[in-house]
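Entry 14. Ran structure prediction on the chain below.
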Amino acid sequence: MTAETPVSLWPDPDALGTVTDLYQLTMMAGYAAAGIDQSDATFELFVRKLPPNRSYMIFAGLEQAVGTLLGLRFSDEQVEGIRHWPVFSAIDPTWFDSLKQFRFTGDVWSVPEGSVVFANEPLLRVTAPLAQAQLVETILLASLGYPTLVASKASRIVEAARGRSVVDFGARRGHGPQAGFLNARASYLAGFSATSHVEAARRLQIPAVGTMAHAWVQSFGDEPTAFATFARLFPRATTLLVDTYDIEQGVRNAAAIEPAIQAIRIDSGDLVAASKSARAILDSLDRTGVKILVSNDLDENKIAELLDAGAPIDAFGVGTELITSRDAPAISMVYKLVELDGVGRIKKSAGKRTYPMAKQVYRSTTSAGKFAGDRVTRADESADGTSLLVPVIQSGRLVGNLPGLDAIKEYCRAQRESLPDRFRQIEADTSYPLDYSEALEAEAVKLGLK
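Output, structure tokens:
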């Protein structure tokens, strides 16, 4: 499946013009007043540094970002709502009228969604009239930053699970309902097998998985009745939660169901001991095919510890630690002007310096097909390796069809497998080779960066 029209996860995708920071609008109005709003501008989006405990990132959120740019509009109500704000009192009234006809007409180049990426290399490039390129900063950072954060976390969790299924249970733990959609999509493309989020599963065609709450068991007179009723009503997806009262007895009650259920879930206690005991009970009762799913604030470190301890677990449900990326809940993604009317632009601030000019990234590989290093060049240069940034939007129109989510998932899997093993460990090497071309360095020197 490919996306001829990008799937929107916004509640009102036709009125996103004011889903931005105020200074984007004041700068747009100021550019128009200064007569430079149509200057040809190039901005680049990148991450300044890897989040803590990360050796790479997974780039995610591109489909929604692209869909937002293609459909970016201001409603009449929005325009009239800001027209009389004091900050705009000196602005020509005709500028507000122009907002009602706003359309993004620029070009976007991006690394493919699902790519393994690193800090200080451009992930997305926008070339458009200055006012347009300025406006889209907030919406691009919001659309790409959080999904990239979650996908990067999810990738580590998938690695820790060592081929076992991992399911997204994060919907109830996110910072607001919208986070559940983005989390479900980002974790799925990074290797999760399913989500518990119903609308995300429906809209994005992700497999939906659910078990039961303790309240189900508590709502019946006894646990065997609760289990039998659930299994009868949902025979094709029976996973029984066995830790409401006594785990071992819960496992025995679950094993007594005929025909055999698909899985049990353990959500508390010593998961190593509980899973070993559960496996022994299930096997002794001729339920060798019943799988064990565990949850309870799991992350990549806890999953690795469980498996290192020999816990016979078949699948993991991960919620809070995924959707909040608790150990690294923010990402230093930025969007900076690098070129205006063909002239390089830089930022010299300590710790926030930027390189000028539109850029490309070339990735080299070893003879074994493993990533060997990246080189950042001017966009008009060539270098050894594969160029990463590809055209996605030209003159405000989508270039071909975007890949479907399952294709992105497979691409992401191949990308991760192309990483050298030292970058795929939980305690991983963070020194991936990255450098800048001589021509790019010369541009930086010319503008006083070095």
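The first strand starts at residue 2 and ends at 3. Will compare against last week's run tomorrow.
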